[in-house]
Amino acid sequence: MKTFAEFGLEPKVLQAITELGFEESTPIQEQAIPIAMAGSDLIGQAQTGTGKTAAFGIPLISKIPREEEKIVALIMTPTRELAIQVAEEIGKLTRFKGLRSLAIYGGQDIGRQIRGLKKKPQIIIGTPGRLLDHINRKTIRLDDVQTIVLDEADEMLDMGFMEDIQSILKLVPEERQTMLFSATMPPNIQRLAQQFLKNPQHVSVIPKQISAPLIDQAYIEVPERQKFEALSRLIDMESPDLAIVFGRTKRRVDELAEGLQKRGYSADGLHGDLSQNQRDAVMRKFRDGSIDVLVATDVAARGLDVSGVTHVINFDLPQDPESYVHRIGRTGRAGKEGTAWSFVTPREMDHLHLIERVTRHRITRKPLPTMAEAIEGKQRITAERLLAMVEDGGELNEYKGIAIQLLEQYDSVQLLSAAMKLLTGDTKDAQIELTPEDPIRAKRRGGKNDIRSGRKPNGGYGGNRTGSGTGTGTGGGYRGNRDNASGGTSGSSSSRGGYSSGYGSNSSGGYGGGYKGNRDSGASRDAGAGRSSDRKPSTRPSSTSTRPAKREDYDI
Ligand SMILES: Nc1ncnc2c1ncn2[C@@H]1O[C@H](COP(=O)(O)OP(=O)(O)OP(=O)(O)O)[C@@H](O)[C@H]1O
Ligand SMILES: [Mg+2]
């Protein structure tokens, strides 16, 4: 692997990289940085947690002169949390060079963003909706942009940002460098690339197994109604440093977070119906370790990089294999090891096998942790806490008098056991009832779809997403359900129906029909509930007929 000094970077950027503790470049960085530094357009694909942010970030900041006063670089991300995180990483990389960067995302006070823009940042990192909002208000001009990055491009398109991205890209001078990073290369990404990238170089570091090799993957077959018990036993047994628990819907996440709190875990929930302030607060608490279990919808599946996440638990299986890869990729990052567990209800076994096939990775079956294992795990933690304090020494003096007295009267094993029992906490656990979710099921699946060939595992829907089919068949699948759910709040369900049927008519359509639908059928109760859109309604194009709604508007 190359050291960063070998890329001919300026000293101030090198200094920042050293400060970040990066010693050698990762494979995607080694390949992408020289190409990007030479100014070429680029399409990058690499496993989760392998440093794609710096792969585009380093060349991007290298190009910008310190005295620049205009917006010359724009990075787009699918979620707000990711915009914030990428802005932080860019901030760290430009620390010594002294560039200004700003995150622009929905849900944050626009006045505050406008004040930030007055400081003349050179680099903007934002979600497409809010970016367009600023463009329409003329608070952001893209006339001088020389570098564009689309991070998690496939996810942005999945979330319905295609038109927004196209509108934005059309406003950027043609003389520019465009870099696109995507987990997959479905047809719509390819079209986007064709339309907006010039002779892009493909940089792909994707080994045989798509998921990161450092993640130990296991599953537990467990009936829906026993899942919560399984979760608390698993957490007790494994005692993660930090864990992310993924739930299928917003309601699920709320119930899980509340249930875990009732049982005394330090947990909190993250999903798209929370205010941005709440979302920020939860992420802050998770990053600084004041909570150790983050319960989240797929809003946290992509790109999030929190060091110390040792466990990812799929409380509910994800919609599709690709989402599985991204979810578990929140652990096992930057060369560290991680563990991923998935709960699979008996009726979801097919779906699990589908995930195994597409990811080309066997997921090990493990038994439900027993009560004894859970208790043992808890006791181990208590013992560790005790020992840490013993090794710490000093501060115990004021307890020693009473300890000696007690030991004179009682058996030492008896005493220590009692102390440990107190420390471990009450084992009488609160009863937690969750609203049951329908199982996710894999129906039928087309032959060659796989993440690495760039096709969505659910059958190339990317190519059809802007289709205008007219069928009403049930194979139409998830978009159809999703749209029904949202019909009352944005757009008409019938117009969107055309879109979904286009998907269903795909050669391998029907596969997505059942399992996508499950998630979204629950969306109706959540749709519109206090969410804050990433965009102003006025920026919505009038012809919404072929436009999928954003994922955030639904159930994550
Ligand atoms: N060369 C390096 N050496 C050590 N650590 C690195 C290096 N490059 C990046 N990292 C760290 O690795 C972690 C993962 O990086 P990053 O978030 O960019 O991954 P990613 O490839 O974008 O993952 P994802 O697909 O999940 O978005 C970050 O904490 C980052 O600081
Ligand atoms: Mg990333």
Automatic annotation (TrEMBL):
InterPro entries: DEAD/DEAH_box_helicase_dom, DEAD/DEAH_RhlB, DEAD_box_RNA_helicases, Helicase_ATP-bd, Helicase_C-like, P-loop_NTPase, RNA-helicase_DEAD-box_CS, RNA_helicase_DEAD_Q_motif. Residues 457-479, 507-516 have a biased composition (Gly residues). It comes from the Bacteria. The keyword DNA damage does not apply. Residues 491-506 have a biased composition (Low complexity). The keyword Glycoprotein does not apply. A motif (Q motif) lies at residues 2-30. GO terms for molecular function: helicase activity. Keywords: ATP-binding, Helicase, Hydrolase, Nucleotide-binding. Pfam families: DEAD (PF00270), Helicase_C (PF00271). Residues 2-30 form the DEAD-box RNA helicase Q domain. Residues 433-556 are annotated as: Disordered. Belongs to the DEAD box helicase family. This is DEAD/DEAH box helicase.
